[in-house]
Design brief:
single chain, mainly alpha, 73% helix, 0% strand, globular
Length: 222
Protein backbone atom coordinates (compact mmCIF):
# COMPACT_ATOMS: atom_id res chain seq x y z
CA UNK A 1 0.00 0.00 0.00
CA UNK A 2 1.38 3.37 -0.99
CA UNK A 3 1.86 6.11 1.55
CA UNK A 4 -0.70 8.34 -0.17
CA UNK A 5 -3.31 5.57 -0.28
CA UNK A 6 -2.78 4.95 3.43
CA UNK A 7 -3.33 8.63 4.19
CA UNK A 8 -6.52 8.73 2.11
CA UNK A 9 -7.95 5.63 3.80
CA UNK A 10 -7.07 7.07 7.21
CA UNK A 11 -8.97 10.28 6.43
CA UNK A 12 -11.98 8.34 5.12
CA UNK A 13 -12.13 6.14 8.23
CA UNK A 14 -11.92 9.10 10.60
CA UNK A 15 -14.71 10.89 8.73
CA UNK A 16 -16.79 7.70 8.69
CA UNK A 17 -16.38 7.19 12.45
CA UNK A 18 -17.38 10.80 13.09
CA UNK A 19 -20.50 10.51 10.92
CA UNK A 20 -21.55 7.20 12.48
CA UNK A 21 -21.19 8.57 16.01
CA UNK A 22 -23.14 11.74 15.23
CA UNK A 23 -25.85 9.68 13.51
CA UNK A 24 -26.16 7.19 16.37
CA UNK A 25 -26.23 9.93 19.02
CA UNK A 26 -29.07 11.69 17.21
CA UNK A 27 -30.92 8.39 16.86
CA UNK A 28 -30.44 7.56 20.54
CA UNK A 29 -30.88 10.96 22.19
CA UNK A 30 -33.62 12.38 19.96
CA UNK A 31 -35.43 9.26 18.83
CA UNK A 32 -34.77 6.75 21.58
CA UNK A 33 -33.97 4.09 18.98
CA UNK A 34 -31.84 1.69 20.93
CA UNK A 35 -31.89 -0.95 23.60
CA UNK A 36 -34.59 -0.16 26.18
CA UNK A 37 -35.53 2.85 24.01
CA UNK A 38 -33.41 5.26 26.03
CA UNK A 39 -34.09 8.85 25.01
CA UNK A 40 -32.77 12.31 25.87
CA UNK A 41 -29.80 13.16 28.05
CA UNK A 42 -30.60 10.12 30.20
CA UNK A 43 -28.85 8.08 27.49
CA UNK A 44 -25.51 9.47 28.64
CA UNK A 45 -25.66 7.49 31.86
CA UNK A 46 -24.61 4.48 29.81
CA UNK A 47 -20.95 3.80 29.08
CA UNK A 48 -21.88 2.75 25.53
CA UNK A 49 -23.13 6.24 24.70
CA UNK A 50 -20.29 8.00 26.51
CA UNK A 51 -17.57 5.87 24.91
CA UNK A 52 -19.03 6.40 21.45
CA UNK A 53 -19.29 10.15 21.97
CA UNK A 54 -15.64 10.20 23.05
CA UNK A 55 -14.64 8.08 20.05
CA UNK A 56 -16.45 10.44 17.70
CA UNK A 57 -14.73 13.44 19.26
CA UNK A 58 -11.32 11.77 18.95
CA UNK A 59 -11.93 10.94 15.28
CA UNK A 60 -13.18 14.46 14.60
CA UNK A 61 -10.02 15.96 16.13
CA UNK A 62 -7.94 13.75 13.81
CA UNK A 63 -9.69 14.81 10.59
CA UNK A 64 -7.96 18.21 10.13
CA UNK A 65 -4.57 16.61 10.86
CA UNK A 66 -5.34 13.86 8.32
CA UNK A 67 -6.06 16.52 5.71
CA UNK A 68 -2.90 18.50 6.49
CA UNK A 69 -0.76 15.35 6.31
CA UNK A 70 -2.42 14.29 3.04
CA UNK A 71 -1.79 17.72 1.50
CA UNK A 72 1.81 17.71 2.68
CA UNK A 73 1.25 20.70 4.96
CA UNK A 74 2.21 18.65 7.98
CA UNK A 75 4.67 15.79 8.20
CA UNK A 76 2.69 13.62 10.60
CA UNK A 77 -0.10 13.59 13.14
CA UNK A 78 1.03 14.66 16.64
CA UNK A 79 1.70 11.80 19.02
CA UNK A 80 -0.76 13.16 21.59
CA UNK A 81 -3.61 13.00 19.06
CA UNK A 82 -2.81 9.37 18.28
CA UNK A 83 -2.82 8.54 21.97
CA UNK A 84 -6.17 10.31 22.28
CA UNK A 85 -7.60 8.12 19.51
CA UNK A 86 -6.36 5.01 21.28
CA UNK A 87 -8.10 6.12 24.48
CA UNK A 88 -11.38 6.43 22.57
CA UNK A 89 -10.78 3.10 20.86
CA UNK A 90 -10.37 1.21 24.14
CA UNK A 91 -13.74 2.53 25.32
CA UNK A 92 -15.73 1.40 22.29
CA UNK A 93 -13.86 -1.92 22.14
CA UNK A 94 -14.87 -2.54 25.76
CA UNK A 95 -18.45 -1.85 24.71
CA UNK A 96 -18.20 -4.21 21.73
CA UNK A 97 -16.76 -7.10 23.75
CA UNK A 98 -19.21 -6.59 26.62
CA UNK A 99 -22.09 -6.86 24.16
CA UNK A 100 -20.65 -9.88 22.36
CA UNK A 101 -19.84 -11.91 25.46
CA UNK A 102 -22.27 -10.64 28.09
CA UNK A 103 -25.18 -8.35 27.22
CA UNK A 104 -25.95 -10.03 23.90
CA UNK A 105 -26.34 -13.37 25.66
CA UNK A 106 -28.71 -11.86 28.24
CA UNK A 107 -30.82 -9.52 26.11
CA UNK A 108 -30.41 -11.11 22.69
CA UNK A 109 -28.15 -9.91 19.91
CA UNK A 110 -31.12 -8.76 17.84
CA UNK A 111 -31.79 -6.17 20.55
CA UNK A 112 -28.16 -5.24 21.03
CA UNK A 113 -27.80 -4.44 17.32
CA UNK A 114 -31.09 -2.59 16.94
CA UNK A 115 -31.33 1.04 15.81
CA UNK A 116 -28.62 3.30 17.21
CA UNK A 117 -27.00 0.34 18.92
CA UNK A 118 -26.06 -1.18 15.59
CA UNK A 119 -23.63 1.71 15.25
CA UNK A 120 -22.66 2.01 18.92
CA UNK A 121 -22.23 -1.68 19.64
CA UNK A 122 -20.79 -2.88 16.35
CA UNK A 123 -20.12 -0.63 13.37
CA UNK A 124 -18.28 2.21 15.12
CA UNK A 125 -16.11 -0.07 17.32
CA UNK A 126 -15.14 -2.32 14.39
CA UNK A 127 -14.33 0.66 12.16
CA UNK A 128 -12.25 2.23 14.94
CA UNK A 129 -10.37 -1.05 15.44
CA UNK A 130 -9.54 -1.24 11.74
CA UNK A 131 -8.47 2.40 11.79
CA UNK A 132 -6.11 1.98 14.73
CA UNK A 133 -4.68 -1.46 13.99
CA UNK A 134 -3.77 -0.68 10.39
CA UNK A 135 -3.24 3.08 10.48
CA UNK A 136 -2.92 4.11 14.13
CA UNK A 137 0.71 3.91 15.18
CA UNK A 138 2.46 4.26 11.85
CA UNK A 139 5.53 6.10 13.09
CA UNK A 140 5.88 3.90 16.15
CA UNK A 141 6.05 6.94 18.42
CA UNK A 142 3.49 5.72 20.93
CA UNK A 143 5.17 4.02 23.87
CA UNK A 144 3.49 1.00 25.43
CA UNK A 145 3.77 2.77 28.78
CA UNK A 146 2.07 5.06 29.57
CA UNK A 147 -0.07 4.71 26.40
CA UNK A 148 -1.78 1.53 27.55
CA UNK A 149 -2.43 3.05 30.97
CA UNK A 150 -4.08 6.08 29.40
CA UNK A 151 -6.50 3.76 27.64
CA UNK A 152 -8.10 2.82 30.96
CA UNK A 153 -8.88 6.40 32.01
CA UNK A 154 -12.48 6.63 30.63
CA UNK A 155 -13.49 3.38 32.33
CA UNK A 156 -11.88 4.42 35.62
CA UNK A 157 -13.72 7.76 35.63
CA UNK A 158 -17.01 6.15 34.64
CA UNK A 159 -16.62 3.35 37.20
CA UNK A 160 -15.89 5.75 40.06
CA UNK A 161 -18.86 7.98 39.21
CA UNK A 162 -21.11 4.94 38.71
CA UNK A 163 -20.36 3.29 42.04
CA UNK A 164 -20.43 6.59 43.95
CA UNK A 165 -23.90 7.21 42.50
CA UNK A 166 -25.04 3.73 43.53
CA UNK A 167 -23.54 4.03 47.01
CA UNK A 168 -24.93 7.50 47.75
CA UNK A 169 -28.46 6.37 46.85
CA UNK A 170 -28.08 2.95 48.45
CA UNK A 171 -29.16 1.64 45.10
CA UNK A 172 -27.35 -1.69 44.96
CA UNK A 173 -29.43 -3.89 42.67
CA UNK A 174 -31.88 -1.02 42.02
CA UNK A 175 -32.09 -0.53 38.25
CA UNK A 176 -32.81 3.18 38.74
CA UNK A 177 -29.29 3.71 40.08
CA UNK A 178 -27.50 0.44 39.41
CA UNK A 179 -28.62 0.08 35.77
CA UNK A 180 -25.90 -2.45 34.97
CA UNK A 181 -26.77 -4.37 38.16
CA UNK A 182 -23.07 -4.55 39.07
CA UNK A 183 -23.95 -4.04 42.72
CA UNK A 184 -26.76 -6.57 42.84
CA UNK A 185 -24.72 -8.71 45.23
CA UNK A 186 -24.33 -5.84 47.69
CA UNK A 187 -21.68 -3.18 48.50
CA UNK A 188 -18.82 -5.68 48.70
CA UNK A 189 -19.27 -6.77 45.09
CA UNK A 190 -18.68 -3.24 43.77
CA UNK A 191 -14.87 -3.07 44.29
CA UNK A 192 -14.45 -6.60 42.96
CA UNK A 193 -16.38 -5.82 39.79
CA UNK A 194 -14.51 -2.52 39.42
CA UNK A 195 -11.16 -4.29 39.62
CA UNK A 196 -12.32 -6.96 37.18
CA UNK A 197 -13.47 -4.32 34.68
CA UNK A 198 -10.22 -2.38 35.15
CA UNK A 199 -8.17 -5.51 34.43
CA UNK A 200 -10.30 -6.33 31.40
CA UNK A 201 -10.01 -2.77 30.10
CA UNK A 202 -6.25 -2.74 30.50
CA UNK A 203 -6.12 -6.05 28.63
CA UNK A 204 -7.99 -4.42 25.75
CA UNK A 205 -5.69 -1.40 25.85
CA UNK A 206 -2.59 -3.58 25.79
CA UNK A 207 -3.82 -5.97 23.07
CA UNK A 208 -4.98 -3.23 20.69
CA UNK A 209 -1.64 -1.50 21.06
CA UNK A 210 0.35 -4.74 20.70
CA UNK A 211 -1.60 -6.01 17.68
CA UNK A 212 -1.31 -2.65 15.95
CA UNK A 213 2.46 -2.63 16.40
CA UNK A 214 2.78 -6.17 15.05
CA UNK A 215 0.50 -5.59 12.08
CA UNK A 216 2.17 -2.34 11.14
CA UNK A 217 5.60 -3.92 11.39
CA UNK A 218 4.62 -6.86 9.19
CA UNK A 219 2.66 -4.98 6.54
CA UNK A 220 4.83 -1.91 6.27
CA UNK A 221 8.15 -3.40 7.38
CA UNK A 222 8.85 -0.67 9.91
Amino acid sequence: MSNKTSKIITLILDILITIMVITSLFMMVLGGTGTLSVQGLDAFKYFTVDSNALMGLCALVLVPFDILVLLGKKEKTPKAIKVLFHIGLVGVTLTLLTVLFFLGIIYGYQNMFLGANLFMHLLTPVTALIRFIFFGNDEGEMQIFPCTIYGTIPMIIYGIVYFINVGVHGGYGDVNYDWYMFGAGGPWTAPLIFLAMLSFTYGISFLTYFVSKKVRKKLYKQ
